[in-house]
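HOLO CASE FILE
Compound: adenosine-5'-diphosphate
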Amino acid sequence: MTGSLKILVVSTECVPFAKSGGLGDVTGALPGFLQKLGHNVMVVIPMYSFIDIKQNEINIAIERMNVKMGNELIVCSVHKTTLHEKVPVCFIDYEPYFARPNMYHDNNFNDYPDNPKRFAFLSKAALQLCHELNFMPDIVHANDWHTAILPAYLKRLYKDDPFFSNTASVLTIHNIAYQGRYDRYYYDYTGLGEEDFTPDKFECFNAINLLKGGIHFADMVNTVSKGYASETKTSSGGYGLDSFLVKKGDDYAGILNGVDYSEWDPAKDTLIPANYSSSNIKGKSVCKRALQEQSGLKQVAKSPVIGIISRLVELKGFFILSECIEDIINNMDVQFAILGSGDNQLETFYSNLQLRYPGKAASFIGYNNKLAHLIEAGSDFFLMPSLSEPCGLNQIYSLKYGTLPIVRATGGLNDTIENYNQDTGEGTGFKFWEPSGKAIYNTVYWALETYHNRKPHLQKLICQAMEQNFSWEKSSMEYIKLYQKALENKKNRAVI
Ligand code: ADP
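Model generated. Tokens follow.
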């Protein structure tokens, strides 16, 4: 391996400061592991107004920083703290863009219309900050459509800047369904030229597609599991970008997300009422009792509980689940503990479930990390009926908590869960393939039947699940290889 790398990670989310999903988990954990491998990482995110300055020990770093966007000059400030005690995190503070109640949308889930301006500005400001701090990155690591413009910035606006002459770019796609498609009107603000508003780069039916442009310009592109990398290269899984990913050839890879076991390990978890491990699992029943009690489920130890924690959106399979969940509740001895928020129609359906089936269904609409830990620990099974799932984290947490995943075999769910083999008792969970209510119903039935009638297999599955290891140690080394390939590509290829 070559020497230590300087890596700039730019993202709209980073745990513990801002998170709506897996993106925040990844940018919160990966930098610490890269740093442990001896690399020098800096993270840049927006200074959202909901971030607690005091609690996170955030201090002012730069009072005034000028950022040129198209013909506008924006004056912002920069704040700073450290993550995992060692990784510097800088917050770009510009109130007109980031002092809003949510990251991406208003309280009615309508996207802020100026999102492309907000995040193009974040991207440009991150590069300006490198200059200000004399942080000369080997790698600029962009994440999702929000910061996908960064590779183009490096190759176009900074192409003659000696400061970035050896900087390569990596773009990670955390979910290809979100591409940053916006009106062409916003393109001027990005400062990029007409020559890049073409169908192979940023243009898509006369609108902007930021992710597409990012795929074109990045020296390496990756997504968050090998399975999803393959799926996104097909017409059904690529959401229109499959041919662009195929064109990348070996410059498009899949690296499974790791999980942060310092946060998600029942043996050490401080947010659950009792700790347990595969060698002493007693505490799990204490957690189950607490979950049933706190959520108003019937206090019946032998009734299996199925946990769900998710964004309640179509892609996560919640419309197909709504086709069968009442039949499951009516016909099977089972309880549901559901935590999520998202689509209005789905929120209404799942919160009403609790009113219609008191004691058998408990629903919490909103975001609640402590409850998420209790559901992981206190449930017997964890259901993820996703239509598509780039990596998925909750099924991996569930494995560690001995909470057997019931998943649709797609993307990262398929890669991380080994289907139960009824003959041998091998496996770590229960899989189905067809995206339908019927398939969910049958697979839940199979899991519950195993719970009641094949106890030795159940114990074996739980043990096997808890022994799985998806730590960042392995995945962070794969990222280093990805960065090295990006550096080689940057050196050896002409910019088109
Ligand atoms: P995605 O990024 O598509 O939302 P992932 O499975 O990759 O899905 O990551 C979801 C992350 O967000 C997990 O850490 C999960 O626990 C968390 N999460 C999702 N919804 C909630 C919620 N309502 N309350 C607490 N945590 C949540």
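CASE NOTES: Residues 312 and 345 are 9 Å apart (CA to CA). The longest helix spans residues 472-492.
CLOSED: yes
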